[in-house]
Amino acid sequence: MTAPRFIEVALPLPLFQTFTYAVGDGPTPAPGARVLVPVRNKRAIGIVIGETDGAGVARPRAILEAPDAEPVLSAQMLDLCRWIAEYYVVPLGVVMRSVLPVMLTGERAPTPSAKTQRIAVITRELPSLQERDALFGRAARQRALYEVLEGMGGRGEVPHLTGQLGFGAELVRALETRGLIAIETSVVARDPFGRRERIAATPHEPSAAQRDAIEALTRGAGGDVFLLHGVTGSGKTLVYIELLREIVMRRGQSAIVLVPEIALTPQTVDRFRAVFGDEVAVLHSALSDGERYDAWLALTRGEKKIAVGARSAIFAPLANLGAIIVDEEHEGSYKNGETPRYHAREVAMVRARAEGAVVVLGSATPSLESWENAASGKYTLLSLPERVRAVKLPAVEVVDLRHSGRPVQGETIDATRAHFRFIFSEPLEAALGERLQKGEQSILLLNRRGYASFLQCDACGTVRSCPNCSITLTYHRAPERLICHYCLHEELPEATCRKCGGATVRQRGLGTQQVERLIAERYPYARIARMDVDTTSGKWAHAEILDRVGRGEVDILLGTQMIAKGLDFPNVTLVGVIDADIGINLPDFRASERSFQLLSQVAGRAGRGPKGGEVIIQTRVPLHHAVQCAVAHDYHAFVRQESPARRDPPYPPAIRLANVIVSGLDENATAKAALDAAEWLRALLAAQSITDVVVVGPAPCPVDRIKRRWRWHLLLKSQKPGALSRVGQYFVERFPVPASHSMRVAFDRDPVSLL
Questions:
Q1: Which range has the top average pLDDT, 56-60, 289-293, 366-370?
Q2: pLDDT of residue 539
């Protein structure tokens, strides 16, 4: 009699434990393989951790199915999942689910089906005209279809024949019935960029600084981290490409390239495909589940060697990893906003150390944490201090909005013109008109979408707010709606005030929709493209807009922060920042840093070609150090002024931080739970004589209600990451979260925002 066999399985449940299951008659699934198992009265996909003796489990239930011949998670990826689970205090099964494609985590279809394509193949040749005349007779369309297939080399995709070429399905069936063609089914890889026209690789001779950086990177040992600090337009992408030539082409290894915005993916993929061809796979959230699964498969099989994508691409299933590139490493989008709240940059360094790869963190405006690590010698600093081809950084002019927007003495302008002048200062208006006359392109940044920030009653001052969140509703004109940008609640605007019945409800504030209308009215001949969340919901929306800009079909590109980084258009000679103050005074310790980065990055979009460029920044705080340092293109000066503010009171990089967020459906109960959590933590620290972790708070979150949930938070601060991990783990596993009012506690390690 065969001895029973048991395996330890991690399930995607909010529980810090694994589960024991019996194997049954089949082979024992290997660690990293998926198993379909019963969980109470449901089924779930779990990941095998390893074999176990089954001790302590009275009657282990048997697995239902083991669909994998080979593990879907390698030993290295299992170890990486364990690190994420421990460091970010997340159940292991939840981490593993987030690492895998969605098509591998569904319990209904544990073995995903491949996409297939019907192919029409000629099986009988007709060499003579007489034979064709006799066979087809008056069936002219059948003959035409047959001869089209001949011209395609004897085989063609049925959807292409019936769709683009206009042959009916009945014609295909008729040729098949007559034995002239056969219909075959073939597996088709879902490659979203497969049919995108490939650009030619542009040869560039590296500058001296680029050569130094390339040589240093190619000499790097496994686990080495390099901070590539280069001004905008200094050719960081060329350095990345030359490094990958060495890693992929000469050494035969693989690589990961992370980009912060989906908007940057098309341009990045185009540049890399121009050099590496079909070696490049794309991974990001805008793709379909099938497209991501097929890319995952191609990387797993070694058919593709370079994974390009947003933060989740750090989990690309590549073997023999040689390099991980994190472009625009300072971007907050690398931090996952939901459980598991990992930071892709930190995960990249852990994975690189384990697999012997080098890490390149690239940015013109590095995060203060990365700069501090470079200054202390933990990272190796590489500098690109000049733009390629000795192109100068653009001149920057600051316009003080406190003294702008008023007609000059003796000037008479109508209401529409006055409104435009209120938004567009005289220097920005003049510069914009000059570019239009010259046939040059402009980029305008306003980091606020919608038409107006809110609607307000003139009589009583009431503002329409979201019923679910502590935030005003943003007015959108197309379609005309009031929308909450947190929970997506929508309402129709009303002509009268709900509170007092007042008949005058005015639009307040400014959004990209309104700016687009003002520009169109002022310059009716201008070709305008708007790029924000509202215009880029489609899979290819980002690429289509940027392709139009690249072809010269757009005069003015208007958008939010997604246009501020990574874009390289030589004909863009003007960048205008309509309101630089958005975000600069938010109640968050990174507010100044984010504002400086945004202004510096968008300024860097100008003057990339031989025509040079100009930047105009409109602000009401022209003396703020974030503005002043961005104007001077001086990152070092910003660090010198910002760093002291992070030391007193201490915030990263001076200290390590965790944000504990308590949320619930009842306001008073949530406040009490947050107070209880703080007291519980302070009692724990006192009982264990832990002096290197400090509890700050609790207090209401700056946005204290989102999606009907009230929010309070408290901070854990420590100089020692290990101590923060131990306290966090103990708290998350043992703090008694109240069962009432749907109370939740989230532990956010190394938060990028405290809002």
A1: 366-370
A2: 67
Q: How far is CA 89 from CA 13, 135, 265, 568, 595, in A?
A: 14, 73, 31, 40, 30
User: In this structure, how many other beta carbons lie within 10 angstroms of the beta carbon of residue 6?
Assistant: 18
**DSSP state, residue 111:** S
Is 395-449+511-646 the same fold as 208-389? yes
Q: How far apart are CA 453 and CA 579, in angstroms?
A: 13
**pTM of the predicted structure, to 2 decimals:** 0.86
Partners of 410 in beta bridges: none
DSSP labels for 586-634?
Answer: -SSTTHHHHHHHHHHHHHTTS--STT--EEEEEES-TTSHHHHHHHTT-
Residue 171's pLDDT band (cuts 50, 70, 90): confident
Q: What pLDDT score does 613 carry?
A: 86
Non-local (6+) Cβ contacts of 671 within 8 A are 698, 700, 710, 712
Is pLDDT of 36 > 60? yes
Q: List b or e across 628-642, with b for residues whose CB sees 16 or more CB atoms inside 10 angstroms.
A: bbbbebebeebbebb
Predicted pLDDT at 329: 95
Domain coordinates in residue numbering, the chain: 6-104, 116-187, 208-389, 395-449+511-646, 450-510, 656-749
Distances (CA, A) of 88 to 49, 342, 355, 714: 19, 7, 21, 16
Residue of 187 and 475 predicted with greater confidence: 475
| Residue listed under structure tokens 């009230």 | 710
pLDDT of residue 137: 83
Q: Is the pLDDT of residue 706 over 90?
A: yes
Tokens of 706: 């989102």
CA atoms of 485 and 288, how far apart (whole Å): 24
Establish how many alpha carbons lie within 13 A of residue 508's alpha carbon, considering only the half-sphere containing its beta carbon.
13
Superfamily of domain 208-389: P-loop containing nucleotide triphosphate hydrolases (3.40.50.300)
**Could you give the CA distance from residue 734 to residue 747 in angstroms, rounded to a whole number?**
13
Q: Which is nearest to 354 in space by CA: 84, 672, 105, 754?
A: 84
The two beta strands, 395-400 and 528-531, are unpaired
Contact 410, 631 (CB under 8 A): no
Q: Are 748 and 658 in contact (CB under 8 A)?
A: yes
Strand stretches in 509-602, DSSP E: 528-531, 556-559, 572-577
Specify which of 49-53, 114-118, 385-389, 437-441 reaches the highest per-range mean pLDDT.
437-441
The residue written with tokens 């061809």 in the block is 277
Show the beta-strand stretches assigned E in 277-418: 280-283, 306-309, 321-327, 358-363, 380-384, 395-400
Beta strand pairing call for 474-477 and 306-309? unpaired
Rounded to whole angstroms, the Cα distance separating 388 from 205 reads 10
d(CA 496, CA 478) in angstroms, rounded, equals 20
CB neighbour class for 657 (10 Å; exposed up to 12, middle 13-18, buried from 19): buried
Question: Quick one: 395-449+511-646 is in which CATH superfamily?
Answer: P-loop containing nucleotide triphosphate hydrolases (3.40.50.300)
Report yes or no: 755 and 470 within 8 Å, Cβ to Cβ: no
End-to-end alpha-carbon separation of the chain, Å? 61
Confidence at residue 116, expressed as pLDDT on a 0 to 100 scale: 67
Decide if pLDDT at 708 tops 50: yes
CATH of domain 656-749: 3.30.70.360
Among 143-152, 248-257, 266-275, 607-616, which range has the highest average pLDDT? 248-257
Whether 245 shows a pLDDT value over 50: the answer reads yes
pLDDT tens readout for residues 521-559: 899 999 999 988 888 777 677 778 888 888 899 999 999
Identify whether the C-beta of residue 256 lies closer than 8 Å to the C-beta of residue 324: yes
CATH class of 6-104: alpha beta
Q: What is the crossing angle of helices 236-244 and 265-276, to 10°? A: 40
CA Rg value for the chain: 30
**Contact partners, residue 507, CB within 8 Å, separation at least 6:** 451, 452, 454, 455, 475, 514
- Taking all residues of the chain, what is their mean pLDDT, rounded to a whole number? 87
